Amino acid sequence: MSFYELAEKRYSTRKFSDRPVSQEQLEMVLEAGRLAPTAANLYPVRIFVIKSEENLEKIRSLTKNVFNAPVVLLVCHDRDKSWKATNFNDDFDSGVMDASIVTTFMMMEATDLSINSLWARGFNSEEIARAFDLPSNYVLDDILILGYPAEDDQPSPMHSQIIEFNHFITEI
Ligand SMILES: Cc1cc2nc3c(=O)[nH]c(=O)nc-3n(C[C@H](O)[C@H](O)[C@H](O)COP(=O)(O)O)c2cc1C
Where are the domains positioned within the chain? Predict the structure, then answer.
């Protein structure tokens, strides 16, 4: 499958089946994240894997945006390790960007394995960090949920509302 076909295959899933994600497949997804580039190669990204019933229930009580996924990845960056653009007199911290590219690599690897996913940011990050006792220097940037879709799962109407090419690209 070409990368374009893979990109076309992906959609956000909000209704999962009971079929578990095997440890081997989960490790392939995490490994793809490990291959992602990060600013200055500092790799400030840290991932917490939630798949125990107890912690799945806990995260579901904190945000509805993990739906009934059997695997929930908390994607964080260490604010003490992310690259800062201080030498350019710029107020830029690469943490969120690094977490995003790691999340993207994992999401696309999952798609390649026919595991569906959803990228979530609809939550209170401090509340979740507190509930799971994450180190205070870690910022929870996003959540990637993984699993096999329910039989009647369908892409939401938003999936096909794609920006027109001419609005997306401006040649300058
Ligand atoms: C940064 C980001 C945050 C998102 N947060 C949520 C979320 O909290 N809950 C949710 O249901 N979908 C969330 N989504 C999924 C988007 O709504 C979805 O990607 C978009 O509607 C396009 O649909 P598609 O992924 O099926 O192509 C998020 C996506 C991104 C990239």
Answer: 3-168
pLDDT at 87 over 90: no
Tokens of 95: 């943490």
User: 52 alpha carbon to ligand 1 midpoint, in Å?
Assistant: 24
Nearest Cα residue to atom 4 of ligand 1: 120
CA–centroid distance, 17 to ligand 1, in Å, is 19
70's CB contacts (< 8 A; 6+ apart) are: 16, 18, 19, 20, 21, 51, 56, 146, 147
pLDDT at residue 89, as a whole number: 84
- Give Dmax (Cα) for the chain: 53
Check residue 86 and give its pLDDT: 87
Q: How far is the CA of 119 from the centre of ligand 1 (A)?
A: 6
Superfamily of domain 3-168: NADH Oxidase (3.40.109.10)
Q: Judge if the beta carbon of residue 118 lies within 6 A of ligand 1.
A: yes
Residue 134's nearest CA partner among 62, 67, 66 is: 62
Q: Is 55 in the pocket of ligand 1 (CB under 6 A)?
A: no
Average pLDDT over residues 128-151: 98
Which residue's alpha carbon is at the smallest distance from atom 27 of ligand 1?
A: 159
**Chain position carrying tokens 């943490």:** 95
- pTM more than 0.85: yes
Mean pLDDT to the nearest integer, 26-40: 98
